[in-house]
Amino acid sequence: MKGDNSMPALLVFLLLLELHFAFAADEKAFIGINIGMDLSDAPSPTQVVALLKEQKILHIRLFDSDQAMLLALANSGIQVTVSVPNEQLLGIGQSNATAANWVARNIVAHVPATNITAIAVGSEVLTALPNAAPILVSAMKFIHSALVASYLDSKIKVSTPHASSIILDSFPPSQAFFNRTWDPVMVPLLKFLQSTGSYFMLNVYPYYDYMQSNDAIPLDYALFRPLPPNKEAVDANTLLHYTNVFDAVVDASYFAMSYLNFTNVPVIVTESGWPSKGDSTEPDATIENANTYNSNLIRRVLNNTGTPKHPGVAVSTYIYELYNEDSRPGSISEKNWGLFDSNGAPIYTLHLTGSGTVLANDTTNQTFCVAKEGADPKMLQAALDWACGPGKVNCSSLLQGESCYEPDNVVAHANYAFDTYYHKMAMASGTCYFNGVATVTTSDPSHGSCIFPGSGGRNETFTNSTALAPSESSTSHGTPCHFSHTYAWINTLFSSLLFWYAFPL
Fold it and tell me: Does the keyword Hydrolase apply (predicted)?
């Protein structure tokens, strides 16, 4: 109709949106690390920075603006996100002058020597400190104004991390929306992020999603373990396939923002991880699972896969966290999210082959898959039978008279079969599990003329197989208490997930 410009305007909008995400797709995702210091024997800031450099960690997030740490980071080149702690939020949100003083003391005094690139204003304020919610956007605006006055606004972004529990009905992701109670805060907050070119900070914890799901979420789906296409979760509205919880939660935030008509604010994940130890109520807080989750997460982020809704668009992520914090209050798992102990020794060996140089504690090329000590002999035999059968491992070396026949027992034979399968699958995380009877070790199990794959004794080339190793089943669990997350969306999840996968033995 003459004079109706709605269609051209719509086309311009769609073109701009496409250009925005095309630009975002060109950006490379990064892995960062959160640094908490609730340690009884805390390393000095200089020691922390030395560990970061040794591990080639170039992006960190501090939960405060510790002056000694900021000084130690000077001239390191490490990109730093500093934080306004929740206890300082009320003062900053009610006074422009207080915000300006905070920026002068904690930002201006340290740049450019310290490479500060973002300010996280508060942490999970809407759920952890709801009485401060009305002044959250004011605090962000006051901080940003102070950066503008110091000509730092183009270099330093301002945002605030959210708990994923503010997203309701998050599966399928296409029907997700923010808790409408927070609309008076969320709408101006998103307008601020959009107008300043900042990003939506989101904390994503598949561990808690899994724990709270009453077995509706399989462990494999939470850990990024591979799923066959017919076992992936499918969003019936978009027909997008989801192979892991992480992607589903990130896309739920994109859909929730679009429900409020914000379609060009990128997501950055400010916290994600998996605890390596827990009590009897958290049996899945294990070193193996923490290793699998974080290794797969790092690879997923760095290969710029993006999410089903925005493939190829970077989802940079900060792992929670650098150190185990033994002084943190709460359950055992609360103290065991770290990649390193206070001395800088790795809690476990990450499997990062092909993921670049980040986190140099990767020694995957010297790792082997063997039977776990004390494993049930019947389960070992079943796993051995699987490896030499459906797993397509060449077990001829285990025949009588061959190099690996002796010692003739199930443990020794399982060691060889497990490790052969593990290396055939390129040492991918989750391929040394075998229903809990296998584990990764750095000790070469070769003996005599029986040389294991990956050993310095020989150099073998393997072809990937489509068979996948038996994987862990979900177990019962108790209620965790980390950042007081509540997952109201789980009720919807029960009826919405279309396909789930469980490996047979």
Answer: yes
Q: Are residues 255 and 388 located together in one domain of the fold?
A: no
Phi-psi region of 304 (alpha: psi -120 to 50; beta: other; left: phi over 0): left
Tokens of 411: 């443990």
pLDDT digits (tens, 9 = 90+) for 1-23: 444 444 444 444 444 444 445 44
Classified as helix, coil or strand, 54 is helix
Buried b (16+ CB within 10 A) or exposed e, 128-163: ebeebbebbbbbbbbbbbbbeebebbeebbbbbbbb
Question: In this structure, are 315 and 403 located in the same domain?
Answer: no
Domain closes at, from 361, 377, 403: 361
Alpha helices in 27-95 (DSSP H): 45-54, 67-72, 86-94
For the record, the structure tokens of 469 come out as: 């190793």
Tell me phi and psi for residue 284, to 5 degrees.
Answer: -95, 5
Q: Which domain holds residue 414?
A: 368-441+443-472
Give catalytic residue positions.
124, 271
Q: How confident is the model at residue 427 (pLDDT cuts 50, 70, 90)?
A: confident
pTM: 0.71
Total domains, the chain = 2
Question: Residue 418 is part of a domain; what is its CATH number?
Answer: 1.20.58
Looking at the fold, whether 331 and 454 belong to one and the same domain comes out as no
Residues 188 and 214 in one domain: yes
